[in-house]
Amino acid sequence: MDDVQRNELLVQRAGPQAIAPVVLAFDVGGTRIKAGIVQEAEVLAMLVEPLPATKDAASLIEALVQIGQRLLVQQSVEAVGISMKGIIDPQQGTILDVNEALSALIGLPLARLVTQAFGLPVWIENDARMYTVGELVYGAGKQVENLLCLTLGTGVGCGVALQRRVIRGGRGLFGILGGHITVESNGPRCSCGNIGCLEALIGTAALRQKAAELHVCPVDDALTPRAIFAAAAAGSEAANAVVAHFTHYLSVGLVSLIHTYDPDIVVLGGGIAYAAAQFLPAVQRYVDEHTWSYPRGRVRIKTAKLGDSAALIGAAALARGLHVLQ
């Protein structure tokens, strides 16, 4: 189903009341599947499940269908939106490339398979780009023209909006590789194959490794980013050294991204953004001191307003026909 047919179908179903259609949205990451029933910026119901232990294509698609069907018992919907890691071809509804857990889905006609399962039009796009759509339309970016959005968690996702359009570029790569800029030329190898990527320095695996090297002792025995930041807040010198490491490389990366994309604001989301009070003031100071853009010090760094639901809300917006991609 092409874009014109999809939009016509949604308009027909929406009827004359101009009430936003209700959409089934998925946010598929490297460790979990999040699904929700979404109407505009409201998530009416949500389920979160881990990825299946067997990560072959059939198991991954079956997991999507099963969690979706559980939600559809509660609510009928007009379309399906899928936010997913990787480089996506939304016209063909396929994943062109992705690391790690979702690699079994590369090249499969995912949109067509999900359409067959639910009998509904399906839209698929990159997860960080969908997070950016959510924040641009309903969140921290509602009042600006140009937005840079980073998601901080297992990896570092990135999306860019210029003149209130979230940009894809000719090959679907524009903006989304912000986590793979080099911030340390002698740094560790990244999962993408490059050396010293931002993601390789501040992603979850990197923070856990740094914490282990510095012998951080989390109170709950789980060396997660949340536990590391909690230990730092409790006064652990070792944990504070990890937070300083994170803050430095995030700041360095943001300066380069601001120089590249010239945003009005930067929005930080993802699982680590909850601890923004521990690093955001220092990041803002560094950015103010090191960016060379007119006028100096103009770019404000904010936390996401939609939190963990931003990508679901962005995917639902596109699935119901909102035109914000370019």
Sum this structure up briefly.
This protein is of the alpha/beta class and 326 residues long. It is 37% helix and 20% strand. It contains 10 helices and 12 strands.
Compile the SSE list and pairings.
Blueprint (H helix, E strand, L loop, with lengths): L2 H12 L7 E7 L3 E8 L2 E9 L6 H16 L6 E6 L2 E3 L4 E4 L12 H9 L3 E5 H12 L8 E6 L3 E7 L2 E2 L31 H5 L1 H10 L11 H9 L3 H25 L3 E5 L10 H11 L9 E4 L6 H10 L7
Parallel strand pairs: 1-4, 4-7, 8-11, 11-12
Antiparallel strand pairs: 1-2, 2-3, 5-6, 8-9, 9-10
Question: Would you write up a description of this structure?
Answer:
This is ROK family protein. Pfam families: ROK (PF00480). It comes from Ktedonosporobacter rubrisoli. The protein has 326 residues and is of the alpha/beta class. The chain has two domains: 138 residues, Nucleotidyltransferase, domain 5, CATH 3.30.420; 162 residues, ATPase, nucleotide binding domain (Nucleotidyltransferase, domain 5, 2-Layer Sandwich), CATH 3.30.420.40. It has a five-stranded mixed beta sheet with strand order 3-2-1-4-7, with helices on both faces. α4 crosses α10, α7 packs across α8 and α8 packs across α9.
